[in-house]
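Table 4 source record.
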Amino acid sequence: MVSTQKPGFLGSPADGGSDEETVDRETQVEFPWVCSECELEMVVPKPVCEHARCGHIGLKSTFETDSGQECPHCSQTEGETPVTTVGVLFQCDGCGEVFDVPPESCA
């Protein structure tokens, strides 16, 4: 599912948004933003999560392990303390550069 919401906004279930918004790269043909570091059109929105116990904030992918979710800071697993989605960052899938706002759009 490709998000149709405004960049940087996940919303909440109450206003039609979802705290589990994802980008399906298999169905996304064009990337909307050009990376200012490597100049590839591969910048996509990525969910940002916060661990309730220790307060660590990072890309959702940093919390994911082969066995589920684990905080990369304190190593607690998902079942012990919840991890919640708190926003969106933009990451280049080419070079890995992360942006808090999307870089210049493709023309």
